[in-house]
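S.,

Sequence below, as promised.
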Amino acid sequence: MQIIRTITWVLLTAVLVAFIAMNWTKAPINFWPLQDGNYLHFDWPVGVVALLFFGLGMLPVWLYLRAVRWRLERRIATLENSLRATSSPGVGTPGLGASPADHVVISDVAKP
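The prediction came back faster than expected:
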């Protein structure tokens, strides 16, 4: 499974590098308005700008999913801890919370 993940990352990196290389023409970007009416101006490659804003657009979704995962992991841990706390210490011994299936005795053994 590790080899599939590695191959996927290598292919994704190759595609991103090819995208940036094909879109290396510089584009003027007005970044921030200044007091004199001009802008803070950068000339960045189009591919870098596209990847930057794609990453910025994906960031809130990634943070949301990480928060949901963290909340669910905490909830699962809380439920597991409460289950451990409520389970009796003598599980498997007769009369201390064992299920009837634990007390099955095989008395009739098939004779040849």
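The beta strands are 26-33, 39-45.

Coffee later?
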